[in-house]
Amino acid sequence: MTMRELVVATPVDAVEFNDVYRNTTGSAGYMACNNIYNRVVLNEWYDINPHADLATHWECLDGARRWRFHLNHAARWQDGVPVTAHDVAYTHSHAKKMGYTGSMFLDDVEQIVEVDKHTVDYHLSAPNSGFLVMLGNFIFAHILPAHLYEGTDWATNPHNFKPVGSGPFRLVDWIPGDKVVMEAVKDHWGPKPEFDRLILKIVPDRDECVRMVARGEAHVVPQDTLTKDRLHLLDGATHAELVTFEGPGMALLDFNHSRELWKDERVRRAIAHAVDRTPIEALADPGISRAWDHYLLGSTEWAFNPDAKAPAHDMDKAEELLNEAGVTRDASGQRGALKMFYMDTFHGHRPLAQIISDSLGQLGFEVTFEGLTSVDWAAQVRDAHDFDLIIVGGSMAPDPEITRTKYSSGGKNNMAGHNNPDVDAAYAAARSATTLAERGKHYKQLQHVWARDTEWVPLFWYGMYFPRTTNHFGFSDQLGWSVPWWHWGRVRPVN
């Protein structure tokens, strides 16, 4: 019998297979984990309502201070051991205790209680109406097998490279620089895959990734944020299409608020005035992506504040503000050197970095910029805070609550050192509100504060591009966002 294979062409190799431990965003390991593991609940970018994953149903208790999840009794680890409340409680409690990536969205969790073998309660320090989105929106929330991790050092646990998940595919081979191979779990407790093998083919040349789909050698290419210059490579393909969506997030410029230079709002505002969105708009794709000067996506209509905007391009005003703040030019016309980074996984951030560098060069700043791997980004930006500026992306939908980890003073992913009491107050008020309308009012205030204080600078509203086969069905958008974007366990041939 011929082995049925689904091939995904992707440019970034795996690092390991445990994103609850540390983040390897966009890598082949990151994508593999979406097929090897499960979350408690699942949210995707375009649907604020959660879907069942390990939990079949859940309850909001004590005014959103406690959330109860009822786990699927049929769920099994790939070694046959039942998935229980202990796995859930252990994974997230230990990640929080150790400060691992999985703790990023658990900062208001005080205690996780095993009510019984298949019921688990999350006790929060304060009401949080957006907790389900925090728990279900990101890969970092995957649940690990306690019987293989408890009592070990996650940093050296061999199952980071030989993962045992509860998902529909198991890892069988990883040849660095070549491919990640997974096989279907034949007796899987949930929906069974239609393919025998899922192959993540590592192809560093992004153009060649698209050509592989056009030639029928791969079935899909994950999105390459911001880029549109290689889309013509699908022209003439008979069994492939380009699926496009207005994206769920934006690229933005952020400051290292822990450095004295950026503690002065006048300096931050000057940088914002220097940003020229005309060349940024040249990167856009009408109807899919655009240069953006608002502090939230317009698609999140219930929370969007159209009046909160970044300062308009005005180099004279930028010069005036810098001089007023004492950041003056020297005899040679220079104001100093700045280091700027972006995550190279998001290759489309590079042209934005060049545009910002050119704009700030006109103000007398010598800006060097570099793309970092996800591992180097974690070390240099998130841990060491060794930067002046970063171009960073990320989802802001379907609920602004997911941004809190980056922009609140206590956020676990607050790599830029934000510490604004008015920002914290707006987030807290939105979490405590019980209706979407009430929450929206507080998020509109949040955007007002961001704009008023120039906390960061919005640049670009992403577009999403997915070159993929037309001979298959079952991708996330075709299933009502009920599975992760990078999950291919429901894809099946249609002819």
Distance between the termini: 18 Å
How helical, in percent, are the residues?
25-40%
Described by the principal axes of the CA atoms, the overall outline is globular
Number of helices: 14
CA radius of gyration = 23 Å
What class would the helix/strand composition place it in?
alpha+beta
Strand percentage, roughly?
Answer: 15-25%
Mean pLDDT level: 94
Taking strands numbered 1, 2, ... along the chain, how are they ordered across the largest sheet? 12-16-11-15-13-14
Q: Provide the low-confidence segments as ranges.
A: none
Number of strands: 18
Main β-sheet description: 6 strands, mixed
Question: How would you describe this structure to a colleague?
Answer:
- There is one protein chain.
- This protein is of the alpha+beta class.
- It is 26% helix and 24% strand.
- The chain is built from 14 helices and 18 strands.
- It has helices spanning 28-36, 85-98, 131-136, 146-149, 206-215, 260-263, 265-274, 277-281, 315-324, 349-361, 374-383, 404-407, 421-432, 436-453; strands at residues 5-10, 41-44, 47-52, 55-61, 66-71, 109-116, 119-124, 169-175, 179-184, 197-202, 240-255, 290-291, 336-343, 365-372, 389-392, 456-469, 472-473, 492-493.
- The strands form five sheets. It has a six-stranded mixed sheet, sandwiched between helices.
- A hairpin with a 4-residue loop joins strand 4 and strand 5.
- Helix 7 (265-274) runs antiparallel to helix 9 (315-324) and helix 13 packs antiparallel against helix 14 (436-453).
- The chain is globular and about 75 Å long.
- It starts with a strand and ends with a strand.
